[in-house]
Amino acid sequence: MHVRPPKNSQSKDFLQMEGIGVLMTCPMFPYLEQELEQRFHLHRLWDFPSRRRFLEAHAGSIRAVVGDTKVGADAELIDALPGLEIVATFSVGLDKIDLGRCGEKGIRVTNTPDVLTDDVADIAIALMLGVLRKVCGCDAFVRSGKWKSGDFGLTAKFSGKSVGIVGLGRIGSAIAKRAEAFGCPISYCSRSEKPHVSYKYYPTAAELARHCRILVVACALTEETRRIVGREVLDALGPEGVLINVGRGAHVDEPELVAALLEGRLGGAGLDVYENEPEAAEELFPMDNVVLLPHVGSDTVETSTAMADLVVANLEAHFAGKPLLTPVI
Q1: pTM here?
Q2: Catalytic residue check, 295
Q3: Is 210 a catalytic residue?
Q4: In which order are the strands placed within the sheet that holds 186-189?
Q5: 8 Å CB contact between 266 and 241
Q6: By C-alpha distance, which of 117, 115, 249, 114 is closest to 172?
Q7: Active site residue: 248, 256, 275, 318, which one?
Q8: What is the sign of the dihedral through the CA atoms of 171, 175, 180 and 185?
Q9: Angle at 286 between CA 280 and CA 291, to 5 degrees
Q10: Model confidence over 185-201: pLDDT tens digits?
């Protein structure tokens, strides 16, 4: 998906945007940084020894903030930028942005939906296969030379396992479609039952967990969904169950997850996200029934490029007085 104008555009709007102050909150995709630098007056917050010093020097000139899943725009930053007009996040998730404060101040907000759906759904399936078929353990077994001394042993079948999805939005629906191709019965829970969906609906995550072998967390992080997976849900999933999280780390009560795995109350887990990234619970590291990824669900060249193009296109549309492509506010 390439939605931005050509690089060599020298339109009046393009030339006028070169003086607009845009703040990147942390290092992101280099291509995005390059595209922003070509079009705007780009500031990198990490180039300054402190946020305070940056604000003292440049607060009045910043009209846009570009954040991501690590550093977005909290109330403190928003209040410190009197000329802020738009926050464009290089992510679909919005939990790092104070949407309430943006709404109060009339600040526009955009994200990057749709373009990352396939990659995140793909990685969810990869985690299911990785945990059940012990893909990482098999790889290490061959590399270590242990295969010469005997076979690896049996693993668990994925095809046909019942899959429950917490959050049947874009990503959850894409995961369901992929799991169906493996012959997996699908069920889900969400804020309300979806019309025109044939999957079995359960009103709570605990009820869903009691009726599936693999529970996938794919919902947005809100106050209602924070730690939606705790002891009750993990015990409902049970010692034969597997938890997959491609949502946000804060969806899961990590200490309870660690305890359930250590005590054998949960069969396994595949995680791409953690509550305090880049930290992950070290108790998980030696577990051969756990697969850990460093929040790479959407990190392909193709998708990151499309996300970057969408961030830039939203900023260009805003400053040209045109409709935003993916408005949140």
Answers
A1: 0.88
A2: yes
A3: no
A4: 200-201, 186-189, 163-166, 214-217, 242-245, 268-271, 290-292
A5: yes
A6: 117
A7: 248
A8: negative
A9: 60
A10: 999 999 999 999 999 99
